Amino acid sequence: VGHTRLETYSENVGVMTVVGTAATVYLDEAQTFTFEPQSTCSSFVLQNVPSGSTSFTIKITQPSGGGIGVGIDTFKDASGTEIPIYWPGSVVPVVTTTASKTDIYSFKCFDGDNVTSVGLYGVIGGQNYG
Length: 130
Hints:
3% of the residues lie in helices and 40% in strands. By secondary structure, the chain is mainly beta.
């Protein structure tokens, strides 16, 4: 409890990969992630969600061949229970599949102890960069 003032700071950047059809988000290692899918990613698995409030950002870049599907609206906890995702206007974004293009998505959780019931709030940071 108290006040913190910083002039600058940095964050660890985690690199995500697809295992099977899921990519794992290790929230004890980073809050900023890069992801270049090499195969279809139908879901994301959150590992080590901290208690209380947390947020994280995923930068998704299509490989040079493009065309890789990414299910940005499907998150699960470590036990496989789905986590609801809430988007502005209830409009689920479609991840860009164009070769070498980048999308950025951020997520906010207000209760990490109950993430499967309270869900995540998704924000589109931008799409089709590149």
